[in-house]
Amino acid sequence: MRVIVVGAGVMGLSAAAELSARGHYVVALDRFGVGNRIASSSGATRIFRLAHPSRDHVRLAKWNHVLWDRLEQRAGRSLRLKTGLIWRGGLADDVQRALADEGVDHERIDRRRQATLFPELRWDDARGAVWQPEAGAVLADLALHAVESTFTTSGGHLVPDARVLEVDSHAPGGVRVVAEVAGARQEWTADRVVIAAGPWAGQFLGALGAGVQLTPVLEQVTYVRGGADIPWQNRPAIVDAPLDGSSFGFYAMPTPGVGFKVGIDTPLRPFVDGDLDREPDIGRERESVERLRYELPTFDAEVVRSEICSWTDSPDDRFVLDRVGDVVVACGDSGQGFKFLPMFGEVLANLVDESPMPDSVAADVASLGLERFTDR
Ligand SMILES: Cc1cc2nc3c(=O)[nH]c(=O)nc-3n(C[C@H](O)[C@H](O)[C@H](O)COP(=O)(O)OP(=O)(O)OC[C@H]3O[C@@H](n4cnc5c(N)ncnc54)[C@H](O)[C@@H]3O)c2cc1C
After folding, report:
1. Model pTM score
2. What ligand 1 atom has the least distance to the C-alpha of 34?
3. What pLDDT does residue 34 have?
4. Which of 203, 257, 326, 330 could form a cystine bridge with 196, CB 3.0-4.6 A?
Protein backbone atom coordinates (compact mmCIF):
# COMPACT_ATOMS: atom_id res chain seq x y z
CA MET A 1 0.00 0.00 0.00
CA ARG A 2 0.94 3.69 -0.44
CA VAL A 3 0.44 5.34 2.95
CA ILE A 4 0.77 8.98 3.98
CA VAL A 5 1.07 9.78 7.68
CA VAL A 6 0.18 13.32 8.78
CA GLY A 7 2.16 14.09 11.94
CA ALA A 8 5.35 12.41 13.21
CA GLY A 9 4.73 12.60 16.94
CA VAL A 10 4.34 9.53 19.16
CA MET A 11 1.22 8.26 17.36
CA GLY A 12 2.15 9.07 13.73
CA LEU A 13 5.82 8.13 13.82
CA SER A 14 5.08 4.81 15.51
CA ALA A 15 2.44 4.03 12.89
CA ALA A 16 4.78 5.04 10.06
CA ALA A 17 7.61 2.85 11.39
CA GLU A 18 5.38 -0.20 11.83
CA LEU A 19 3.78 0.20 8.39
CA SER A 20 7.18 0.60 6.76
CA ALA A 21 8.50 -2.45 8.63
CA ARG A 22 5.56 -4.40 7.17
CA GLY A 23 6.70 -3.43 3.65
CA HIS A 24 4.24 -0.64 2.84
CA TYR A 25 5.45 2.49 1.02
CA VAL A 26 5.19 5.20 3.68
CA VAL A 27 5.69 8.98 3.63
CA ALA A 28 5.45 10.81 6.97
CA LEU A 29 4.86 14.57 6.87
CA ASP A 30 5.45 16.87 9.82
CA ARG A 31 5.25 20.65 9.93
CA PHE A 32 7.70 21.14 12.84
CA GLY A 33 9.77 17.90 12.81
CA VAL A 34 10.23 14.85 15.06
CA GLY A 35 10.36 15.75 18.74
CA ASN A 36 9.62 19.44 18.10
CA ARG A 37 8.95 21.68 21.09
CA ILE A 38 5.69 23.12 19.73
CA ALA A 39 3.69 19.87 19.88
CA SER A 40 3.32 17.05 22.46
CA SER A 41 6.17 14.57 22.12
CA SER A 42 9.32 16.45 23.12
CA GLY A 43 11.30 16.09 26.33
CA ALA A 44 13.64 13.72 28.16
CA THR A 45 11.19 11.48 30.01
CA ARG A 46 7.58 10.36 30.48
CA ILE A 47 5.97 8.09 33.05
CA PHE A 48 5.15 4.56 31.94
CA ARG A 49 2.90 2.34 34.07
CA LEU A 50 0.38 -0.49 33.88
CA ALA A 51 -1.42 1.07 36.83
CA HIS A 52 -4.72 2.54 35.70
CA PRO A 53 -8.21 2.74 37.26
CA SER A 54 -9.90 0.79 34.45
CA ARG A 55 -9.29 -2.83 33.44
CA ASP A 56 -9.41 -2.21 29.68
CA HIS A 57 -6.56 0.28 30.00
CA VAL A 58 -4.58 -2.19 32.11
CA ARG A 59 -5.08 -4.86 29.42
CA LEU A 60 -3.87 -2.48 26.72
CA ALA A 61 -0.90 -1.52 28.91
CA LYS A 62 0.02 -5.21 29.39
CA TRP A 63 0.05 -5.77 25.62
CA ASN A 64 1.93 -2.52 25.13
CA HIS A 65 4.54 -3.62 27.69
CA VAL A 66 5.43 -6.63 25.54
CA LEU A 67 5.64 -4.34 22.50
CA TRP A 68 8.12 -2.13 24.36
CA ASP A 69 10.37 -5.19 24.77
CA ARG A 70 10.24 -5.70 21.00
CA LEU A 71 10.97 -2.03 20.31
CA GLU A 72 13.98 -2.15 22.66
CA GLN A 73 15.25 -5.24 20.84
CA ARG A 74 14.91 -3.42 17.51
CA ALA A 75 16.63 -0.34 19.00
CA GLY A 76 19.36 -2.48 20.55
CA ARG A 77 19.07 -0.68 23.88
CA SER A 78 16.70 -0.20 26.83
CA LEU A 79 14.37 2.76 26.52
CA ARG A 80 12.73 2.49 29.96
CA LEU A 81 14.00 3.12 33.47
CA LYS A 82 12.15 0.54 35.56
CA THR A 83 12.12 2.11 39.03
CA GLY A 84 8.43 1.40 39.72
CA LEU A 85 5.50 3.71 40.41
CA ILE A 86 3.66 4.86 43.50
CA TRP A 87 0.05 5.77 42.71
CA ARG A 88 -1.40 7.82 45.59
CA GLY A 89 -4.69 9.49 46.37
CA GLY A 90 -7.68 9.52 44.07
CA LEU A 91 -8.71 6.26 42.40
CA ALA A 92 -6.10 4.24 44.33
CA ASP A 93 -8.77 1.62 45.18
CA ASP A 94 -9.83 1.39 41.50
CA VAL A 95 -6.19 1.10 40.42
CA GLN A 96 -5.57 -1.68 42.94
CA ARG A 97 -8.72 -3.53 41.85
CA ALA A 98 -7.96 -3.24 38.12
CA LEU A 99 -4.38 -4.46 38.60
CA ALA A 100 -5.57 -7.36 40.72
CA ASP A 101 -8.30 -8.33 38.24
CA GLU A 102 -5.76 -8.31 35.39
CA GLY A 103 -3.12 -10.21 37.32
CA VAL A 104 -0.55 -7.41 37.35
CA ASP A 105 2.06 -7.44 40.11
CA HIS A 106 1.29 -4.67 42.64
CA GLU A 107 1.04 -3.98 46.34
CA ARG A 108 -1.07 -1.82 48.61
CA ILE A 109 1.57 -0.04 50.71
CA ASP A 110 1.68 1.49 54.17
CA ARG A 111 3.96 4.12 55.71
CA ARG A 112 6.74 1.64 56.52
CA ARG A 113 6.70 0.07 53.03
CA GLN A 114 6.62 3.46 51.28
CA ALA A 115 9.66 4.49 53.30
CA THR A 116 11.59 1.51 51.93
CA LEU A 117 10.60 2.36 48.35
CA PHE A 118 10.94 6.15 48.49
CA PRO A 119 12.49 7.30 51.78
CA GLU A 120 12.22 11.03 50.97
CA LEU A 121 8.50 10.88 50.11
CA ARG A 122 6.14 12.23 52.80
CA TRP A 123 3.50 9.71 53.99
CA ASP A 124 -0.12 10.85 53.94
CA ASP A 125 -2.60 8.90 56.05
CA ALA A 126 -5.51 10.34 54.06
CA ARG A 127 -4.27 9.02 50.74
CA GLY A 128 -4.21 5.34 49.82
CA ALA A 129 -1.05 4.24 48.00
CA VAL A 130 -0.40 1.44 45.53
CA TRP A 131 3.03 0.25 44.39
CA GLN A 132 3.42 -1.07 40.85
CA PRO A 133 6.97 -2.32 40.13
CA GLU A 134 6.86 -2.76 36.30
CA ALA A 135 6.77 1.00 35.76
CA GLY A 136 8.96 4.08 35.85
CA ALA A 137 10.21 6.50 33.20
CA VAL A 138 10.38 6.17 29.43
CA LEU A 139 13.53 7.78 27.98
CA ALA A 140 11.27 9.78 25.69
CA ASP A 141 13.68 11.60 23.37
CA LEU A 142 15.72 8.43 22.89
CA ALA A 143 12.63 6.32 22.24
CA LEU A 144 11.20 8.74 19.68
CA HIS A 145 14.50 8.89 17.78
CA ALA A 146 14.86 5.11 17.97
CA VAL A 147 11.50 4.82 16.20
CA GLU A 148 12.55 7.50 13.71
CA SER A 149 15.66 5.53 12.82
CA THR A 150 13.77 2.22 12.45
CA PHE A 151 11.38 4.10 10.13
CA THR A 152 14.05 5.61 7.90
CA THR A 153 16.24 2.48 7.85
CA SER A 154 13.27 0.37 6.74
CA GLY A 155 12.83 2.67 3.72
CA GLY A 156 10.31 5.13 5.15
CA HIS A 157 10.33 8.74 3.88
CA LEU A 158 10.20 11.48 6.51
CA VAL A 159 9.40 14.97 5.17
CA PRO A 160 10.00 17.66 7.81
CA ASP A 161 8.82 21.24 7.31
CA ALA A 162 5.75 19.86 5.52
CA ARG A 163 2.48 21.48 6.58
CA VAL A 164 -0.53 19.49 5.39
CA LEU A 165 -3.27 21.81 4.20
CA GLU A 166 -5.85 19.36 2.92
CA VAL A 167 -6.78 15.67 3.05
CA ASP A 168 -9.34 14.78 0.38
CA SER A 169 -10.64 11.27 0.98
CA HIS A 170 -12.96 11.38 -2.05
CA ALA A 171 -10.32 12.08 -4.71
CA PRO A 172 -10.09 9.81 -7.77
CA GLY A 173 -7.40 7.11 -7.36
CA GLY A 174 -7.15 7.33 -3.58
CA VAL A 175 -6.76 9.92 -0.86
CA ARG A 176 -5.25 13.21 -2.00
CA VAL A 177 -2.97 15.04 0.41
CA VAL A 178 -1.93 18.63 -0.25
CA ALA A 179 0.91 20.15 1.73
CA GLU A 180 3.19 23.16 1.84
CA VAL A 181 6.75 21.83 1.92
CA ALA A 182 9.40 24.40 2.66
CA GLY A 183 7.04 27.02 1.17
CA ALA A 184 6.15 25.10 -2.02
CA ARG A 185 2.84 23.31 -2.69
CA GLN A 186 3.09 19.51 -3.06
CA GLU A 187 0.51 16.79 -3.59
CA TRP A 188 0.42 13.06 -2.94
CA THR A 189 -2.18 10.40 -3.63
CA ALA A 190 -2.24 7.45 -1.25
CA ASP A 191 -4.27 4.29 -0.70
CA ARG A 192 -4.59 5.12 2.98
CA VAL A 193 -3.80 8.15 5.13
CA VAL A 194 -3.17 8.31 8.88
CA ILE A 195 -4.05 11.62 10.56
CA ALA A 196 -2.07 11.89 13.81
CA ALA A 197 -1.81 15.66 14.11
CA GLY A 198 -1.94 15.94 17.90
CA PRO A 199 -3.42 19.26 19.05
CA TRP A 200 -4.16 20.16 15.40
CA ALA A 201 -6.19 16.97 14.76
CA GLY A 202 -9.51 18.77 15.09
CA GLN A 203 -8.75 20.74 11.91
CA PHE A 204 -8.98 17.55 9.85
CA LEU A 205 -11.74 15.57 11.57
CA GLY A 206 -14.65 17.81 10.60
CA ALA A 207 -14.01 17.29 6.86
CA LEU A 208 -14.07 13.55 7.48
CA GLY A 209 -17.42 13.76 9.22
CA ALA A 210 -15.65 12.47 12.32
CA GLY A 211 -16.67 15.30 14.64
CA VAL A 212 -15.32 14.73 18.15
CA GLN A 213 -14.79 17.50 20.67
CA LEU A 214 -11.03 17.68 21.29
CA THR A 215 -9.54 20.07 23.84
CA PRO A 216 -5.84 20.77 23.23
CA VAL A 217 -4.04 22.47 26.11
CA LEU A 218 -0.54 23.56 27.13
CA GLU A 219 0.99 22.00 30.24
CA GLN A 220 4.28 22.71 32.01
CA VAL A 221 6.86 20.50 33.70
CA THR A 222 9.96 21.40 35.71
CA TYR A 223 13.26 19.54 36.00
CA VAL A 224 15.07 19.80 39.34
CA ARG A 225 18.34 18.57 40.74
CA GLY A 226 20.03 18.59 44.12
CA GLY A 227 19.95 16.19 47.00
CA ALA A 228 23.35 14.85 45.95
CA ASP A 229 22.84 11.96 48.33
CA ILE A 230 19.57 10.92 46.67
CA PRO A 231 20.04 8.26 43.97
CA TRP A 232 17.37 9.68 41.69
CA GLN A 233 17.88 7.06 39.01
CA ASN A 234 16.50 4.51 41.48
CA ARG A 235 13.54 6.49 42.76
CA PRO A 236 10.01 5.52 41.67
CA ALA A 237 7.74 7.66 39.56
CA ILE A 238 4.76 9.19 41.36
CA VAL A 239 1.17 9.88 40.38
CA ASP A 240 -0.56 11.72 43.21
CA ALA A 241 -4.14 12.18 42.06
CA PRO A 242 -6.63 14.47 43.81
CA LEU A 243 -9.14 12.54 45.91
CA ASP A 244 -11.91 13.25 43.39
CA GLY A 245 -9.74 11.58 40.71
CA SER A 246 -10.35 14.53 38.37
CA SER A 247 -6.76 14.71 37.07
CA PHE A 248 -3.27 13.23 37.47
CA GLY A 249 -2.70 15.89 40.11
CA PHE A 250 1.00 15.99 40.98
CA TYR A 251 3.26 13.66 39.03
CA ALA A 252 7.01 13.12 39.00
CA MET A 253 9.65 10.81 37.56
CA PRO A 254 13.40 10.24 37.60
CA THR A 255 15.22 11.79 34.64
CA PRO A 256 18.75 10.48 34.01
CA GLY A 257 21.41 13.14 33.63
CA VAL A 258 19.16 15.79 35.21
CA GLY A 259 17.55 14.57 38.42
CA PHE A 260 13.79 14.61 38.84
CA LYS A 261 10.96 15.93 36.67
CA VAL A 262 7.74 17.22 38.22
CA GLY A 263 4.44 18.46 36.90
CA ILE A 264 1.05 19.59 38.14
CA ASP A 265 -1.79 18.48 35.89
CA THR A 266 -3.55 21.82 35.49
CA PRO A 267 -3.50 23.35 31.98
CA LEU A 268 -1.38 26.47 31.72
CA ARG A 269 -3.65 27.77 28.96
CA PRO A 270 -5.61 26.48 25.97
CA PHE A 271 -3.57 25.46 22.94
CA VAL A 272 -4.13 27.96 20.11
CA ASP A 273 -2.83 27.34 16.57
CA GLY A 274 -0.27 30.05 15.77
CA ASP A 275 0.68 30.56 19.45
CA LEU A 276 4.27 29.30 19.29
CA ASP A 277 5.26 30.85 22.62
CA ARG A 278 6.76 28.08 24.78
CA GLU A 279 8.40 30.34 27.35
CA PRO A 280 7.86 28.69 30.75
CA ASP A 281 5.59 30.32 33.35
CA ILE A 282 7.59 31.28 36.45
CA GLY A 283 4.53 31.18 38.70
CA ARG A 284 3.75 27.59 37.69
CA GLU A 285 7.42 26.65 38.10
CA ARG A 286 7.38 28.03 41.65
CA GLU A 287 4.12 26.17 42.38
CA SER A 288 5.59 22.86 41.12
CA VAL A 289 8.74 23.24 43.23
CA GLU A 290 6.73 24.22 46.31
CA ARG A 291 4.60 21.10 45.86
CA LEU A 292 7.72 18.97 45.40
CA ARG A 293 9.24 20.43 48.57
CA TYR A 294 6.02 19.65 50.41
CA GLU A 295 6.02 16.03 49.22
CA LEU A 296 9.81 15.55 49.63
CA PRO A 297 10.52 17.79 52.65
CA THR A 298 14.19 16.74 53.01
CA PHE A 299 15.00 17.50 49.38
CA ASP A 300 16.35 20.98 48.65
CA ALA A 301 15.33 21.09 45.00
CA GLU A 302 17.17 23.36 42.59
CA VAL A 303 15.45 24.20 39.31
CA VAL A 304 17.30 23.12 36.16
CA ARG A 305 14.68 24.23 33.63
CA SER A 306 10.97 24.14 32.82
CA GLU A 307 9.32 23.09 29.58
CA ILE A 308 5.89 23.53 28.04
CA CYS A 309 4.26 21.05 25.70
CA SER A 310 0.75 20.32 24.53
CA TRP A 311 -1.66 17.48 25.03
CA THR A 312 -5.14 16.96 23.67
CA ASP A 313 -7.99 15.87 25.89
CA SER A 314 -10.76 13.78 24.36
CA PRO A 315 -14.28 13.99 25.81
CA ASP A 316 -13.70 10.86 27.96
CA ASP A 317 -9.93 11.13 28.40
CA ARG A 318 -9.43 8.01 26.26
CA PHE A 319 -7.58 7.74 22.97
CA VAL A 320 -9.50 8.11 19.70
CA LEU A 321 -8.29 5.45 17.25
CA ASP A 322 -10.43 4.52 14.25
CA ARG A 323 -10.70 4.36 10.44
CA VAL A 324 -13.17 6.44 8.39
CA GLY A 325 -13.11 5.08 4.84
CA ASP A 326 -9.46 5.23 3.76
CA VAL A 327 -8.41 7.60 6.53
CA VAL A 328 -7.18 6.39 9.92
CA VAL A 329 -7.65 8.84 12.79
CA ALA A 330 -5.38 8.91 15.86
CA CYS A 331 -5.84 11.65 18.44
CA GLY A 332 -7.09 12.51 21.95
CA ASP A 333 -3.92 11.46 23.76
CA SER A 334 -5.28 13.06 26.98
CA GLY A 335 -1.82 13.45 28.46
CA GLN A 336 -1.08 9.74 28.63
CA GLY A 337 -0.03 8.69 25.15
CA PHE A 338 3.75 8.49 25.27
CA LYS A 339 3.85 5.28 27.26
CA PHE A 340 1.70 3.67 24.50
CA LEU A 341 4.22 4.49 21.73
CA PRO A 342 4.63 0.89 20.54
CA MET A 343 0.93 0.05 20.85
CA PHE A 344 -0.03 2.96 18.59
CA GLY A 345 2.24 1.51 15.91
CA GLU A 346 0.46 -1.85 16.02
CA VAL A 347 -3.09 -0.58 16.30
CA LEU A 348 -2.78 2.10 13.62
CA ALA A 349 -0.93 -0.19 11.20
CA ASN A 350 -3.63 -2.85 11.73
CA LEU A 351 -6.32 -0.23 11.03
CA VAL A 352 -4.50 0.76 7.81
CA ASP A 353 -3.85 -2.70 6.37
CA GLU A 354 -6.84 -4.34 8.06
CA SER A 355 -4.74 -6.85 9.99
CA PRO A 356 -6.64 -8.35 12.95
CA MET A 357 -6.10 -7.04 16.49
CA PRO A 358 -4.96 -9.67 19.02
CA ASP A 359 -8.01 -11.39 20.56
CA SER A 360 -6.94 -10.35 24.04
CA VAL A 361 -7.39 -6.64 23.27
CA ALA A 362 -9.63 -6.51 20.19
CA ALA A 363 -12.68 -5.31 22.14
CA ASP A 364 -10.60 -2.79 24.10
CA VAL A 365 -9.16 -1.34 20.89
CA ALA A 366 -12.62 -1.24 19.31
CA SER A 367 -13.89 0.71 22.34
CA LEU A 368 -11.47 3.51 21.37
CA GLY A 369 -13.35 4.06 18.09
CA LEU A 370 -15.42 7.08 17.06
CA GLU A 371 -18.70 5.24 17.48
CA ARG A 372 -18.72 5.97 21.21
CA PHE A 373 -19.31 9.65 20.42
CA THR A 374 -22.11 9.19 17.92
CA ASP A 375 -25.04 8.57 20.29
CA ARG A 376 -24.20 11.54 22.59
C1 LIG B 1 3.58 18.12 30.15
C2 LIG B 1 3.27 16.77 29.60
C3 LIG B 1 3.49 15.65 30.38
C4 LIG B 1 3.19 14.38 29.88
N5 LIG B 1 3.45 13.29 30.65
C6 LIG B 1 3.19 12.06 30.14
C7 LIG B 1 3.55 10.90 30.89
O8 LIG B 1 4.10 10.99 31.98
N9 LIG B 1 3.29 9.67 30.33
C10 LIG B 1 2.71 9.55 29.09
O11 LIG B 1 2.49 8.42 28.65
N12 LIG B 1 2.38 10.64 28.35
C13 LIG B 1 2.61 11.87 28.84
N14 LIG B 1 2.31 12.98 28.11
C15 LIG B 1 1.54 12.82 26.87
C16 LIG B 1 2.36 12.49 25.63
O17 LIG B 1 3.46 13.33 25.52
C18 LIG B 1 1.41 12.60 24.44
O19 LIG B 1 0.31 11.75 24.68
C20 LIG B 1 2.02 12.23 23.10
O21 LIG B 1 3.23 12.88 22.92
C22 LIG B 1 1.03 12.59 22.00
O23 LIG B 1 1.60 12.35 20.75
P24 LIG B 1 0.80 12.67 19.41
O25 LIG B 1 1.52 11.95 18.33
O26 LIG B 1 -0.64 12.41 19.60
O27 LIG B 1 0.89 14.25 19.25
P28 LIG B 1 2.20 15.34 18.75
O29 LIG B 1 3.35 14.82 19.41
O30 LIG B 1 1.56 16.56 19.04
O31 LIG B 1 2.24 14.94 17.23
C32 LIG B 1 1.49 15.60 16.26
C33 LIG B 1 2.45 16.02 15.16
O34 LIG B 1 1.66 16.47 14.06
C35 LIG B 1 2.35 17.52 13.42
N36 LIG B 1 1.34 18.26 12.68
C37 LIG B 1 0.24 18.88 13.17
N38 LIG B 1 -0.48 19.47 12.19
C39 LIG B 1 0.19 19.17 11.03
C40 LIG B 1 -0.03 19.50 9.65
N41 LIG B 1 -1.06 20.24 9.25
N42 LIG B 1 0.87 19.06 8.74
C43 LIG B 1 1.95 18.31 9.12
N44 LIG B 1 2.22 17.98 10.42
C45 LIG B 1 1.35 18.41 11.34
C46 LIG B 1 3.00 18.30 14.56
O47 LIG B 1 4.13 19.02 14.13
C48 LIG B 1 3.37 17.17 15.55
O49 LIG B 1 4.73 16.78 15.44
C50 LIG B 1 2.62 14.25 28.57
C51 LIG B 1 2.43 15.38 27.77
C52 LIG B 1 2.74 16.63 28.27
C53 LIG B 1 2.49 17.81 27.42
Report:
1. 0.97
2. 49
3. 97
4. 330
Quick one: pLDDT at residue 375? 63
Domain ranges of the chain: 2-373
Whose Cα sits closest to atom 3 in ligand 1?
Answer: 335
Q: Do the beta carbons of residue 192 and residue 175 sit within 8 Å?
A: yes
Whether residue 254 has its Cβ less than 6 Å from ligand 1: no
48 within 8 A of 339, measured Cβ to Cβ: yes
Domain 2-373 grouped into CATH 3.50.50.60:
yes
Cβ 148 under 6 angstroms from ligand 1: no
User: Of how many residues is the chain composed?
Assistant: 376
Taking CA atoms only, the protein residue closest to ligand 1 atom 33 is 7
1-10, 229-238, 287-296: least confidently modelled range: 229-238
User: From the centroid of its chain, how far is CA 186?
Assistant: 30
Phi, psi at 81, each rounded to 5°:
-105, 105
Average pLDDT, the chain: 95
- Start-to-end Cα distance in the chain: 35
